[in-house]
Design goal:
274 residues, mainly beta, five-stranded antiparallel β-sheet, 11% helix, 36% strand, globular
C-alpha cells in the first residue's frame, strides 16, 4: 500500500452551507481559515443547521478577498455580504454553549429568511477572544474552536468510506449507496490507509502541520442528507448503528486539534506519529 497522502481539503465558510473544495488551506488554532466563521441563528439566537433545514446544503458562500461573502442559493439572487462592524453583538446558542457573534445586517437576514421560510440571521465570529473552549475532557488549556460543532477540524479516510459503502451494499437500503464523502462534511480526507485505521491514531502530521486526535466524530441526521439535492434517506445511520457504535454514538471520522499554525495542501504526505 502506498504511503498515506492528503486527498482533499474542504472548508465551510458558513456553518451548514455547502462545502468548498480547496487545493490548500491555512491551519489556524481554531480550524482552517474560512471554515465556519459564519453561521445562522433563529429568532431566539439558536444555531440553525441542516439538522432542521436540509435545504441549507444547496446554498453556498464564497469568501471574498476583503473577508466578506458572496451568497448563492436556488431561487435567490446572489448577495454580497460585508464583514459586519463589531458595534453590536448577538449571543448565539450553539449546542447549549453561548458564543458572542456580530450580526451581518438586515439584507442577509432577509435573504436567508426568504430562502428558509423562517426567521434566520447571519452572524460572524469576529475575534479570537470570542472562540469557545473545546470540551476539556479532550483538550488542553487554551484550545478553542470557532463555529464548528465541537472541534477545529474533522479528518476522514477514503478506505473507511469504501468499507462503509460495502456494508451499506449488503443491507436493506443498498439502493441508497454508494455514498459520497460529502455526506460527512470533513475538512481533510486521507488516501492510502487501511479501513478504520484512524480509530487508532492519537497524533499525526499532514504536510507541515501536526494534529492531536481528540475523539471519534459522532454522526447525526445530516449524514442522511444528499448534499446535492437536500433529499434524506436512511443511510449511513442504519449501517453505522450496526457496525460503528461507540459509547452510544454512531461514529465516522476523527476530530482534530492543531498543535501549531501552518498550511495543508492536497498531496501532502500524512504521517501517523502515535
Amino acid at each position: 500500500m502506498a504511503d498515506p497522502v492528503l486527498r482533499s481539503v474542504h472548508v465551510h465558510p458558513v456553518k451548514a452551507l455547502r462545502a468548498l473544495d480547496r487545493a490548500e488551506a491555512e491551519v489556524q488554532p481554531w480550524g482552517l481559515a474560512h471554515d465556519r466563521r459564519w453561521a445562522l441563528v433563529d429568532a431566539g439566537g439558536t444555531v440553525i443547521t441542516q439538522r432542521r433545514h436540509p435545504r441549507l446544503a444547496l446554498a453556498a458562500a464564497e469568501p471574498l478577498p476583503d473577508g466578506g461573502l458572496r451568497l448563492t442559493a436556488p431561487g435567490r439572487e446572489p448577495l454580497v455580504v460585508a464583514v459586519p462592524a463589531p458595534s453590536a453583538t448577538l449571543t448565539m446558542d450553539i449546542f447549549d454553549k453561548d458564543v458572542e457573534t456580530v450580526p451581518a445586517g438586515e439584507a442577509a437576514a432577509a435573504w436567508f429568511s426568504a430562502y428558509l421560510e423562517t426567521d434566520a440571521r447571519l452572524v460572524h465570529l469576529d475575534a479570537p477572544e470570542h472562540r469557545r473552549p473545546i470540551d476539556p475532557a479532550y483538550a488542553l488549556p487554551g484550545d478553542t474552536v470557532s463555529l464548528a460543532d465541537g472541534y477545529p477540524l474533522l479528518v476522514t479516510s477514503s478506505a473507511s468510506l469504501d468499507a462503509l459503502n460495502a456494508l451499506i451494499e449488503q443491507g436493506e437500503h443498498a439502493h441508497e449507496g454508494p455514498l459520497p464523502m460529502s455526506r460527512f462534511r470533513p475538512n481533510l480526507v486521507v488516501d492510502g490507509t487501511e479501513a478504520w485505521a484512524e480509530d487508532g491514531w492519537t497524533r499525526l502530521t499532514v504536510g507541515e502541520v501536526t494534529f492531536r486526535v481528540a475523539k471519534p466524530c459522532g454522526r447525526c441526521v445530516v449524514t442522511t442528507t444528499d448534499q446535492t439535492t437536500a433529499a434524506r434517506g436512511k443511510e449511513p445511520l442504519r449501517t453505522l448503528g450496526r457496525h460503528r457504535k461507540l459509547d452510544g454514538k454512531l461514529v465516522f471520522g476523527q476530530n482534530l486539534v492543531p498543535e501549531h499554525r501552518g498550511t495543508v495542501r492536497v498531496g501532502d504526505p500524512v504521517k501517523i506519529l502515535d
